[in-house]
Each structure stands twice: as structure tokens, then as C-alpha cells.
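Researcher: Sequence recovery benchmark, item below. Answer with residues only.
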């Protein structure tokens, strides 16, 4: 009886593996057809406007400048002063090195 059970189990396993392989291969082949059809449909469809602009599209010029000349000069002076204060806080040997460009 044990030999009969083993024979049935191996036959069931063979059948199950054969069914699994057939289903897997058919799924892969049908999946490939679906993706290639969708790709062809996208190619033939009219180009749609995406969320992002095209590479060659430039953003519109701003109506007013971001910073006026006075604001730019003030910011430059503040940054220069901050850099000079930082150099003064450095140790003397490093301050000389930091002063050279």
C-alpha cells in the first residue's frame, strides 16, 4: 500500500508541476502581448501634455527682478563682513592661509 501511495504522490506532483509550468508560460506569453500592445498604442496616440514641461520649453521671464541693485549690494556687503568676521576668529596661522586666494 505504501508503494501505491508513493506512486500516486509522484504522479500528483508531476501533474501539479506540469500545470504550474503551463500556467506560468501562458501567463508570461499573454503578459508580453499585453505590454507590447500597450506600447504600440502609446506610440500611435497623440502626445499628451505631461506634468513636467518639455526640455526645450523655457520658463517665462519674471516681470520684476528678484533683487534690486541696492538689495544685491547690501547682501554682498553683509556676506563680505561675515567672511571677514570668520577670518578674525580663526587661529593666526590659519587666518593667514585663509586670506590668500
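Model:
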Amino acid at each position: 500500500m505504501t508503494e501505491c501511495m508513493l506512486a500516486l504522490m509522484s504522479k500528483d506532483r508531476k501533474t501539479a508541476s506540469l500545470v504550474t509550468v503551463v500556467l506560468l508560460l501562458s501567463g508570461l506569453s499573454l503578459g508580453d502581448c499585453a505590454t507590447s500592445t500597450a506600447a504600440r498604442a502609446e506610440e500611435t496616440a497623440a502626445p499628451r501634455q505631461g506634468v513636467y514641461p518639455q526640455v526645450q520649453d523655457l520658463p517665462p521671464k519674471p516681470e520684476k527682478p528678484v533683487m534690486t541693485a541696492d538689495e544685491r549690494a547690501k547682501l554682498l556687503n553683509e556676506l563680505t563682513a561675515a567672511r571677514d568676521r570668520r577670518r578674525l576668529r580663526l587661529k593666526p596661522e590659519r587666518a593667514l592661509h585663509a586670506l590668500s586666494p
